[in-house]
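thread: overnight batch results

M.L. [08:02]
morning all. the overnight job finished for the chain we discussed friday. pasting input first so we're all looking at the same thing
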Amino acid sequence: MSRAKSILFLGLLAAISIFHHSQLRAEGQLPAVKRIVFVGDSITHAGGYVAAIEAAAIANHPDRHIEFLNLGLPSETVSGLSEPGHAGGQFPRPDLHERLQRVLEQTKPDLVVACYGMNDGIYYPQSDDRFDKFKSGMQRLHDAVVARGAKIIHLTPAYFDALPIRARLLPAGKDEYLQPYEGYDDVLEAYAKWLLSKRADGWEVFDVHAAMKDAVQRERKSDPNFTFANDGVHPNAAGQLIVAEPLAAAWGLKLNASSLPNPSQAESILKLVAQKQQVLKLAWLTATRHVRPGIAAGLPIEEAQAKAAELDKQARALVLAAATNAPKRIVLIAGKPSHPIGMHEFNAGVQLLSGCMQGRSDVKVEFVLNGWPKDESIFENAAAVIFYMDGGGNHEAVLEDGRRLKFIQKLTEKGVGIGCMHYAVEIVPNQAGKEFKRWIGGHYENMFSCNPMWEPNFVQFPKHPITNGVKPFAIKDEWYFNMRFVADIVGNEPTKAESMQFTPILVASPSDDVRDGPYVYPKGPYPHIEANKGRAEAMMWAVERPDGGRGFGFTGGHFHDNWGNDSFRKVVLNAMLWLAKVDVPTDGVESKVTAEQLSANLDPKAKK
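M.L. [08:03]
and the structure it wrote out:
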């Protein structure tokens, strides 16, 4: 199904992405304001795009309380113009400036969003006089808002679609246009370009016109009669979402989720928001004394606000309920192939672990193969992200001159859990040492840590959800130890360090022969490793971060076949749930792995 048809099918139902409010959203953030007032013509008054934006804001940030007031007025212009015989001669088009000062004085907005232009050319061909009145009217609007100490965002005019009404359009050269001019969208495009040029003067302008026109043209490649507006002017539900897109993107809001945890609740949330906006809209239009006939009278402001507050409370309660009941998303990122066959089988490993979680209703595990995802939307709404890949100076997380580190930092600031397995725990300290200590409690440091091939015997486990159901086991792997932990702790016992709760999960004492080497690289031995003979070491640990998120490091995972060991596998599966803040079963995550499953999805590489 095409993108626009998909939105059309879902309508505004898909306007809300219901996920836990502490998780990552699209790039950008909601403005730091308490009240936003939308002004515009009938497209704004219809309210679809305003309701979609507020519903998405509530769904994504139920802890943020921003009041969205829709004061759009049908037929209105910012230019003050009206064509002869408007509305059958019943009344001229309302002029925004007749009511603007009353609106600003009474609503006291922190931010105004204005969308005008569709009516301002009065459906005639382009003329300098009408264009000048649009420009001067828009400048007056901008100046009036700024003079009140508020900010203003301008949206370019919506797209005028001539196709569905082509039979009643008039050509150029008429003295009077009782029906729209056939090339009217060229007028709107000129208005949009002028508005966009005002960015050079510091205006904040978002291009609704281009968004709508581009969407229509894309759809017409497969459906020549596609339209968002059957009357050429007023967008349907899908078109209203397109109007919302530029502003929503700037505010970090997703309007159409690819999958919704609970579509019926999404519909209910949007319905409540639309009801709330309708109550407030009519109340404020009445209170600010608009002059357009045909608009129903609203409630007194205090009564309307009380009713709106109850609707808002109900919407937020549904969001939180949906977040609580929705499965948590865990994303596994596999590195590119490296090492001989059977070693560092990152791609096969994440697919195997994902398969072990199939059938669970509390989590949804997704994986990315061969390195950092090309589409970073995979991270959106993730409860936990786990890296299983090569590390060091070319660690996937440190590339792009630190951009990815900043990206992951944003995840952690939202409480997303971060896990690293095997080589992925190693970074270059001056590249990402402080980040890894903050995210997962520590990291492997070349020539400080060591990486021998050995077979630790894990016989005792701390009381922790990650160890649920894990039985004593011994298995040969490239188990790293002597990590560079937060606050330079040894890491072999539970510790509170730098407001972080650190818990070692897999602990064993390397023999003297293991400490003496050889290590995999460099071979060693290292005097400081030998000096600690007899000391227990942590090969897996977990942390509870002060930001509310969790982290873990697991140094095993060199040999792919080790995933066939039930306890080796279970301790990682348990960690995946714990990282995502999902209750770990008392007996841990039960799974079975066959020889065929272990040999599946191995990278095509030469045997050693």
